[in-house]
Design a protein that fits this description.
Layout (H helix, E strand, L loop, with lengths): L10 H8 L2 H17 L1 H4 L7 H12 L4 H4 L3 H13 L3 H25 L11 H25 L1 H20 L4 H6 L2 H12 L12 H7 L8 H13 L1 H6 L4 H11 L6 H13 L8 H24 L12 H24 L3 H24 L7 H17 L20 H21 L4 H18 L1 H22 L2 H14 L6 H18 L3 H6 L1 H17 L2 H4 L3 H12 L5 H26 L10 H28 L14 H11 L1 H11 L5 H13 L3 H20 L8
Helix pairs in contact: 2-4, 2-6, 4-7, 6-8, 7-8, 7-9, 7-11, 8-9, 9-11, 11-13, 13-15, 13-16, 15-16, 16-18, 17-18, 18-19, 18-20, 19-20, 19-21, 20-22, 21-22, 21-23, 22-23, 22-24, 23-24, 23-25, 24-25, 24-27, 25-27, 27-30, 29-30, 29-31, 30-31, 30-32, 31-33, 32-33, 34-35
Length: 723
Amino acid sequence: PDSSENAPKSPFQNALTAQDEDGLRGYCRIFTEMGESYMSLIMSPEELNQITLVELVLVCSGIPDREIANITLHFWYNFVAWLEDLEPYRYRQTRIDHYTPQIIRLLSICTTLLCYPTDIDTLTADRVDDVQRDRYYVSETVEDCCRLLGGDAVLRKIGDHLREECNRVASLPSQEQQLNDWHGIEACLFAIKSLSRYIPNDENVVMPYVMNLIPQLPPAVPLLRCTANLTVGKYASWLGMHPNYLQPLLPYLAQGLSIEQCASASAIAIKELCEQCNEQLMLGDSVLELYGGIVASQQSQMAGANGAGTGGAATPTLALCDELEVLEGACKAVSRQLQDAAAKGTSSDVTSVYLNRLIQPIGLRLTALAAPESTCGPKQVIAELERLTVIVRFLVIPGQGSGGGDNSATSGPGPSFILDLMRESWPLLDAISQKHQRDYYVAEKLCRLHKHALRGAGTVAYTSMLEPLLTQLTRNFAQSHLSPYLYAASICISEYGTDPAQVQRLFGMVSEMSNTVFSMLRTMDDFTSHPDIVEEFFFLAGRMMCKCPEPLVLSPLLVGLLQCAAVGMQLQHRDANRGTLNFLENTVSYGVSVVKSAKAGGSSSTGYSDNSCKEALERAIVSDGQPIVNNLAKALLGDLPAYRLDYGNGSIAGVLHRLNDLCPELLLQWINPALTLVPESAKAAFVGTLVQKVSRDEFNSSVRRFVSICERNRKLGGGTSES
């Protein structure tokens, strides 16, 4: 017999030697699918030479062509899942120990697969996205290994690989070669980053080496620096327990903010560090100083650009989204320091200082932007509104009780701070909204600020601001016809709709906004041109029907809303259609509940007569229900959009089911003529579920079957009977 050296190679080995791409891809798929199919045998205690199949897949994972190697990743996902599910525990551990050598080798292969291609800087954006996606999947495989071997074991293995890679690069003869050969180090850091949630804070073998290494990495390699920054952020909790490693890391992160490709990673890492602040890790002053420098640099650059006659169009040194990450981190770090100061009884001495440092610069810039002579565009206004919103959301002032909402001294800023801030800035915000009446993004950011301020302070504390807020929203919407004001109005109804003292005020706002909407949506083309208005308007009306429906039901406005909804539900726009159906389902659901309440002789908590509301709603349904039912039937038949057939609050099935509860005879009277072209057996089955008043789940199934038959019938050319 031939010796092993002289034995003929298998076709797979020949393909590996020849780097036959098509052949390797075929073998890889065969071995991977075979492994997935025989997973139960791979896990079996009976010795069937299963390890050979696992070895074959492992060899495929190590194929240099990453596209081919990545085919095996799903096998390893299943492999880990099966091992985790084995019972009892002793047997599971026995099988894990059996395959540990393969898992350890898989880790080495993964660090290779995580390497960026050497030509990454020349690849197209689409190809880079593919590379990033593949790296994400490989990092998930590394995480899977942690679940089997434990985070410490995996970290030690990758840490050893990192040390070897650093020593190899350091041994290269020239500095240029060392700078260009960074891919292996970056891959190890990327793998270590993905392990963060499996690594305990007392790990003292690999992480000290990593944190000492990061500031020494070459600063001019953006991709390496990005991964290093993100690794620092992921191990913020570890650094919180080892703050002595932070001294060189903070300047490293701060410098990264000035490098365009690294700025986002640096900002995220700084925020994550701030989130882990404790008595050992006090970053409030440092990050606040850093943030002040960022804003000052941007303002200086913009002022220089304005002076050069560019109209302020210069790109800031740091993107606004990255700046806001740093500001959020500063707010969280300052909040922790204020919390510690409050525990020591010294908070009053430092609170005003921090508030002035955070808010005063924004106030000064808002004052300048709101001035009539200011020529700054909306971009700078939006930036200041975003900064103010971050402070409202993330700055916590201890010792201020709950304002009646969900926030408390431990979970939110508290009412006093937010109320004072909003009162002082209100004239400026109002002036800015008037100065940039038609700018959608200014309106959106302003309304977002109002939402977070209201929810942060709590409804009780914010009540004093409600009237000016409703007035501003109503006026601004009438002037601008911008949908964010409708959204903000919906938020007000959500928060105050159950307060009887505010119901009439809210209804007044809805009434005025409805008049504005009706004046601008007069034709189908108007609806088509403003789908965002249709969406937010009907969500607003639907929320009114949920929270405080009585004044709306008793007013002539309801008829106008139903007529408008009959048009809006015809739009070929998913969100507008969803908003319309949401309003209709809420309206009919209220009708069902008020009928039950009227039979019991009750009245609403707001003092309205249930009988009066029942009669008013029934009149509106009788008057304008048929066009709505016709449209619902057309949606089932495929003649109108059916984006939401039977799920969520606001669906075709939901409206029909509630109508069948409210007025079954009218529904049958309206829907039968609309279904004349439907196959008779399908129509009979569908109508039968209405007559029988089946449960909602059964009705949903019936609707799906009916739509499926109608769709098949339409594809076959229509007709009145089934083929």
